[in-house]
Amino acid sequence: MTALPDASFAPPPGYRLRLPGPTEVPEAVRAALGRPMINHRGPEFRALLAATEELVRPVLGTRNPVVFLAGSGTAAMEATLANILAPGERVLVASHGQFGERFAEIGRCLGAEVEVLDFTWGEAPDPAVIGAKLREGDYGALLVTHNESSTGVVADLEALGRLTRDTRTLLVTDSVSGLGGIEMRQDEWGVDIVVSASQKALMCPPGLGLVSLSERARARVQRNEGMPRFFFDFRKALAAAEKHETPFTPNVSHLAALHTALRLIETETLPKVLARHHRLAEALRAGGAAMGLAEFTKAPRRSSTVVVFEVPAGLEGGDIVRLMYQRHATVIAGARNRLQGRVIRIGVMGGHDEGTVLTDLVQLESVLRELGHAVSPGAGVSAAAAFLAG
Ligand code: PMP
Q1: Which of 208, 226, 61 is nearest to 235 (CA)?
Q2: Which atom of ligand 1 is nearest to the CA of 147?
Q3: Which residues does 70 contact at the CB level (< 8 Å), separation at least 6?
Q4: H-type helices in 269-351, by residue range?
Q5: Keywords assigned by UniProt (predicted)?
Q6: For the whole model, what pTM was predicted?
Q7: Which of 68, 74, 179, 184 to mutate to test the pocket of ligand 1 (most atoms within 8 A of CB)?
Q8: Which one of 75, 176, 309, 349 is CB 3.0 to 4.6 Å from 201, fit for a cystine?
Q9: CA 205-208-211 angle, 5° bins
Q10: What's the rounded Cα separation, in Å, for the pair 317 and 334?
Q11: What is the chain's pLDDT, residue by residue, as a tens digit (390 residues)?
């Protein structure tokens, strides 16, 4: 038998996780993960779940009940569609990137009749075009990615909410990479369902999904027809949530972590958290621009949680990603889709400060120079510093 390799899971010294998720987990949140296990049907867990739900509501901008799931964001997306759609039901996906495509794929896989409005990657979904399409047919739901992690574009949910509000079409949004870093006003905007996950701006490890459902979304879930579902049955989850429980054994430690992360947000205050994300993303953009890194999107509604840069002509995105890791132990993202090689993506999610983005820019500069891209020394970092000082 061949010996197993000597696996060391420790990241190299100076490791910086700068992906658009999973993101760095703050110390206090990591400590919460290590708390002693508790009875998931006991008073301590009920108190934890109740407090977590109460803390996440302002981040969602809702009074809705929230269902917590053991599973990543994709699990929460699939669970959502299985609960609101019937086999063969028409659903419209306003897709503006990789995760819109994923929503469509999940819908097809479950047996819904999926129609896709394909918006050019890098452009925001156009409410006028979507409105015209919605008037053509009877759609059970409109699915849209709030913050498209593949392009760095944010959809105008408020405008989309105006389209669906007085119709039978539920507005469902994937805010896996937005929630906690980009404003969400679920109730005010008329968003029926917000799907999110723990590992992005919510600063937790991957593995916890959450879904918040409006009254009419809950009514849809209760109907008897619909897709087969068992573990993911929101009828059970909503009934259990009323007692501050989950139908099956929950990921207790993840919930303890999320509770702590939400306390961090509450302490800093949500407006300040959102403003900090915006400011750091803008600083990163300013610094990138000064080094010849154009932003992929030219759309006005840009993400505060992920900055997507075009790779300069003559360079390969994968080389930048690889050298950032090899030279600096910094992990940034490329693309695993049609933009592969053409963009690099850097997360601005969670508990970062100015030092994070300034360091990103210093390291990017050295890597770009090594790859033969001319950058005048300090151009990126000084543009970002000037922005931050302004
Ligand atoms: N939607 C968006 C916008 C995402 O960024 C991601 C994760 N990159 C997902 C969905 C899928 O989430 P997960 O990887 O947690 O399944």
Answers
A1: 226
A2: 3
A3: 207, 208, 209, 248, 249, 250, 251, 254
A4: 270-290, 317-328
A5: Aminotransferase, Pyridoxal phosphate, Transferase
A6: 0.97
A7: 74
A8: 349
A9: 140
A10: 6
A11: 566 666 678 899 999 999 999 999 999 999 999 999 999 999 999 999 999 999 999 999 999 999 999 999 999 999 999 999 999 999 999 999 999 999 999 999 999 999 999 999 999 999 999 999 999 999 999 999 999 999 999 999 999 999 999 999 999 999 999 999 999 999 999 999 999 999 999 999 999 999 999 999 999 999 867 899 999 999 999 999 999 999 999 999 999 999 999 999 999 999 999 999 999 999 999 999 999 999 999 999 999 999 999 999 999 999 999 999 999 999 999 999 999 999 999 999 999 999 999 999 999 999 999 999 999 999 999 999 999 999
145 Cβ below 6 A of ligand 1:
yes
Q: Is the CB of 103 under 6 A from ligand 1?
A: no
Cα dihedral 83/138/158/301 (nearest 10): 90
Distance of alpha carbon 28 from alpha carbon 185, whole angstroms: 27
Whole-number Å distance, alpha carbon 170 to ligand 1 midpoint, is: 21
Q: Is 108 exposed, middle or buried (0-12, 13-18, 19+ CB in 10 A)?
A: middle
H or E stretch at 117: strand 113-118
Rounded-to-integer distance, Cα 85 and Cα 227, Å: 7
Neighbours of 3 (CB within 10 A): 5
- Tokens standing for residue 163: 């389209």
Q: Which residue has the tokens 């390799």?
A: 5
Which residue has its alpha carbon closest to ligand 1 atom 6?
A: 176
**Ligand 1 atom closest to Cα of residue 178:** 3
Six-digit token string for 40: 């998931």
Cα gap 368→376, rounded to integer Å: 11
Q: Which amino acid is at 251?
A: N
Q: Decide whether any atom of ligand 1 lies within 6 Å of the 73 Cβ.
A: yes
How many angstroms does the Cα of residue 80 sit away from the middle of ligand 1?
14
